[in-house]
Amino acid sequence: MEKSNRVILDAKQFDLTIKRLAHQLIENHNNFTDTVILGMQPRGLFLANRIQAELLAINKKYKVQVGSLDTTFYRDDYRRQDNPLIPSKTQVDFIIEDKKVVLIDDVLFTGRSVRAGLDAMLAFGRPSKVELLVLINRRYERDLPIQAKYIGKNVHSVTSERVEVSWVENEGEDKVILYTPAND
User: Fold this and answer.
1) What is the mean pLDDT of residues 59-76?
2) Which pLDDT band, with edges at 50, 70 and 90, does 84 fall under?
3) Which ranges form a coiled coil (predicted)?
């Protein structure tokens, strides 16, 4: 039973956060000629597609390519699962060799998913630079020395708490909630 939940981002804040992240990318990548975006499956791809759409809404010349990365078999815990894992689709229809790659995920917590994403990405070439963009950065519980360059919102949480990102494409609405378990 959940003790409390707190909305971290409502739909309006969610939209503003995506707009801000897109503008930060523009500041650092100018015209995106040497930049590609890789969304980590499954939920990082929602954010990657939203970022791409926002960039195009700002200026039609920002035609940044977006691909999707599945990290299932690159995870350090995939053999420890009781049930077989069902991978998502990886689709990278472009060259990342010597490109700037913006790796995107919805939540950064321990860093293990991002590490797996970096390993999966290397199967498609060696980029000149990799930057991490996340909607939510859960601080204080990192297992690996991984840090995002672009952060939608920092959340100060403990291991027992849970952050849930809802996407209009999947759950019917955009919002982020922090769940705190009951102390029963």
Assistant:
1) 86
2) low
3) none
- Find, among 160, 163, 155, 162, the residue nearest to 183 by Cα: 160
Which pLDDT does position 89 carry in this prediction? 80
Main-chain phi, psi angles of 91, to 5 degrees? -145, 105
- pLDDT above 50: residue 2: no
pLDDT tens digits, residue range 103-134? 999 999 999 999 999 999 999 999 999 999 99
Query: In the chain, what are the domain boundaries?
Result: 12-73+92-155
- What's domain 12-73+92-155's architecture? 3-Layer(aba) Sandwich (3.40)
DSSP assignment of the chain: -EEEEEEEE-HHHHHHHHHHHHHHHHHHHTT-TTEEEEEETTTHHHHHHHHHHHHHHH-TT---EEEEE--GGGSTTGGG-SS-------B--S--TT-EEEEEEEEESSSHHHHHHHHHHGGG---SEEEEEEEEEEES--SSS---SEEEEEEE--TT-EEEEE-TTTTSS-EEEEEEE---
Q: Which of 148, 149, 176 is nearest to 16 (CA)?
A: 176
